[in-house]
Design brief:
The protein has 342 residues and is α+β, with helices and mostly antiparallel strands. The strands form three sheets. Strands 2-3-4-11-5-6-7 form a seven-stranded mixed beta sheet, sandwiched between helices.
Length: 342
């Protein structure tokens, strides 16, 4: 598998998106986010998405000329309209507004409407944590899961991400220098398993475990192909489904965005403009118990966690992979690299 530098990967992705119709800022921000996800080992949100996004730009599911804009604002609350473009410029604007308003008000909520697939939600919260803020981010997605007791997909897998800044460490020590230690980052979808695993099982003709999915009639199934035509199940049963419902309402009812069942699947090139929603919450620890108290409490908890052998901090593996990729580049499958170059 060929290995390329992050700068080369980003340039390839940027040029491919621009050729498909993305404006310069959209192409640059999208390429940077996809390469960052790839560097963290999240290939499902990485370079493999370029061809998909390019198809959406060409067939009108995403508007490559769109420029996000603030359409509502009051105190710590702000609403960004992505205007049917790829999500990344709108999310970047929401992050900047959340950071600015949290610094002023102690807390900020930035909603995004008329948006698209937003990729790895751990990236925007990590960016806010590096600025000293506690951050949470949510996004809905095309319908894949039923509500509790339901049979048909109404909600997306609806990722939840959170990041907590660590106490700054001196230069020369692990995580030291500008920005301090790597933040504690938690990033997870609310389905029992990633849809990609079911797709692989269907391709290979393997069964899937019980509890992953329902068939088109709403019956539990171990048939991967039947699962793809049915619905995925939430992690933790009804509790996970209710969490997904919370995300759906936060991202859509507050922003005016489309619910998951109103957005066509991303696994098909043809379809409507998804009009998805994102929500970002940023909090300044200094507005509550104080920054020092926050760092002391967080580090006390982390120390207790790490006292048990085998415990790994959330996000630590992704941070290590990203640091390695910055030095050594990333391995890219031949097919993905060929598609980028085409």
């Amino acid at each position: 598998m060929p290995r390329i530098a992050l700068t080369e990967a980003e340039a390839l992705a940027r040029d491919a998106l621009a050729a498909a119709g993305a404006n310069p800022r959209m192409a640059a921000l999208t390429a940077a986010a996809l390469v960052a996800a790839e560097a963290e080992g999240q290939a499902g949100h990485g370079l493999s998405r370029v061809a998909q996004y390019a198809a959406f730009l060409r067939n009108g599911r995403a508007d490559g000329t769109a420029e996000p804009a603030i359409v509502a604002s009051r105190g710590g609350a702000v609403l960004v309209d992505a205007r049917h473009g790829l999500a990344y410029p709108a999310v970047a604007l929401a992050v900047e507004e959340a950071a600015r308003r949290a610094a002023e008000h102690g807390i900020a909520f930035a909603g995004v409407t008329n948006s698209h697939h937003a990729g790895a939600m751990g990236l925007p919260v990590a960016a806010l944590a590096r600025r000293g803020l506690v951050a949470l981010a949510f996004t809905n997605s095309p319908a894949a899961m039923p509500v509790p007791g339901g049979r048909r997909p109404l909600m997306g897998t609806n990722p939840v991400a959170a990041a907590f800044p660590r106490r700054p460490t001196p230069p020369g020590k692990p995580g030291g220098g500008p920005g301090g230690s790597d933040p504690l980052v938690i990033d997870m979808a609310l389905s029992e398993v990633a849809r990609g695993k079911i797709m692989v099982a269907a391709k290979e003709g393997r069964p899937i475990p019980e509890g992953w999915a329902l068939d088109a009639e709403g019956n539990p199934t171990t048939d991967a192909k039947a699962a793809l035509g049915g619905a995925m199940l939430a992690m933790g049963g009804s509790k996970g489904a209710l969490l997904a419902m919370i995300v759906e309402l936060l991202c859509c009812a507050l922003t005016g965005a489309a619910f998951g069942f109103e957005a066509d699947s991303f696994f098909e090139e043809a379809g409507n403009r998804p009009r998805l929603g994102q929500a970002i919450l940023a909090l300044d620890p200094g507005a509550l118990a104080g920054r020092e108290a926050f760092f002391e409490r967080l580090e006390t908890f982390i120390a207790a966690m790490l006292a048990d052998p085998g415990v790994r901090l959330p996000g630590s593996r992704r941070a290590a992979l990203a640091a390695r990729a910055a030095k050594e580049g990333i391995e890219v499958p031949e097919a993905v690299l060929a598609a980028l170059r085409r």
